[in-house]
Amino acid sequence: DRDRHSAARMNSTLRGPLRVDGVSVSAGGHRILDGVDLTLFPGEMCALIGPSGAGKSTLIRVLLGLRDADGGSVRWGSRTNDRFPTAGYVPQVDAL
Question: What domains, with CATH codes, occur in the chain?
């Protein structure tokens, strides 16, 4: 019963799209992300590609609420700039 209620809360949160508006992140005096805009609707898929150091992992961490952005906003359905409690994240491990 608890799992059903948790799933219902998640579904109501995700009814709307993921909206990223003007997200910027700096670290060590360098701009990592600069005004990122993105809208993804439920059921859509997106691949982030780019060279090492391009900011892919940083963007994912901002989307999940694991890192604060310096500017802009992230909205998951009805949640704004909040940790997303039902998301899973497995960061990359450098093997080289």
Answer: 2-80 (3.40.50.300)
